[in-house]
Amino acid sequence: MSKYITYIGTYADHDYGIPVLSVNSETGAMELLSVCRGYERPTYLRVSADKRFLYACAGLEEFAESGRGALVAFAIQGTELNLLNARPSLAGPPCYIMSDQHNQFLFAANYHEGTGVAYRLAADGSIQENGEALRHTGRGPHPTRQEQAHLHCMELSPSGEILYAVDLGIDTVKAYALGQGERILTPLPSADLHEEPGAGPRHIVFRRDGKFAYLINELASTVSVWDVATPTAPQRLQTLSILPKSYQGANTAAAIKLSEDGTRLCCSNRGDDSLAIFAVEAISGLLALMNISPTLGRGPRDFEFVPGGRFILVAHQYTDTLVMHEFDAENGCLKTAPADMLALSQQPVCIKFGSALG
Prior knowledge:
Layout: E1 3-10, E2 17-24, E3 30-37, E4 45-47, E5 53-59, E6 69-77, E7 80-88, E8 96-99, E9 105-110, E10 115-120, E11 132-135, E12 151-156, E13 162-167, E14 172-178, E15 185-187, E16 193-194, E17 201-206, E18 212-217, E19 222-227, E20 235-241, E21 252-258, E22 264-270, E23 274-280, E24 287-294, E25 300-305, E26 311-316, E27 321-328, E28 333-334, E29 340-343, E30 348-356
Antiparallel strand pairs: 1-2, 1-30, 2-3, 4-5, 5-6, 6-7, 8-9, 9-10, 10-11, 12-13, 13-14, 14-15, 14-16, 17-18, 18-19, 19-20, 21-22, 22-23, 23-24, 25-26, 26-27, 27-28, 27-29
């Protein structure tokens, strides 16, 4: 099957929400099918591993007393999203949401507050009551971006045993053991990852075998390779710039993704407005820069490899566009002309693929 349901996170107000698309993995063609309306700032999304549920960050007035932040659960029924329920993030609208492979737990990161929250999930995909909060403390050297902790991402190791909470404000990825005893998360400081002061770590991805982690640093515009084969003895192996050597302007790094086969890693630049594409060495896990390709829009906040790997879809926050690029994996670059382009209002900032259509 060549067409896939695709969900787009946005900075929507209440009259907009989550656009639902059809994306053709063979031609790159996109079609807007509908918009799931009524949710403020559904910026980051998560499709469950079995493709039955979608979870979204959002702002909801019913949680005004705790900051209006919400985690919202939907059942996926064909091209429709049917609301299951919502629970508070115990802060403002979150910036990141993640569930485990077995759909037992749900996690969200609250950037501005430097906090996170974890919930248990019911068998029907709904979010259970009594979320478990976590809070980071500290600061980094950047005077305006690191004045306190700023939790930006929560990702699970491939084994599902450790949650990594990426904190831009304190230059640290804090590790938590998952599901030990009554608590959902238990601190595991021996597995923490410490970046250079001022690097500003943002997002993390893992190789499928769990041996290596790749961490993008927003403030430094770099990517680091971490050996996490022994989680409690992590080693940083390499840190590389994701910018062209000649680039002199302001830039912040954004998204990081691995190709389906794990041989290519891409990082997006906001400022240079490009994707840096690296080859991944199979044994060492180390990176080698192949190319830096323009994304043909401003502020590539997120991107995803389209299923099958022939295309990369990029969401541009500041030009309100989705741009479909054909991906030349052999040479590590994007083709010059876009395969398709779609204008979406209210700042598209996240892309998640669901099931095949038909």
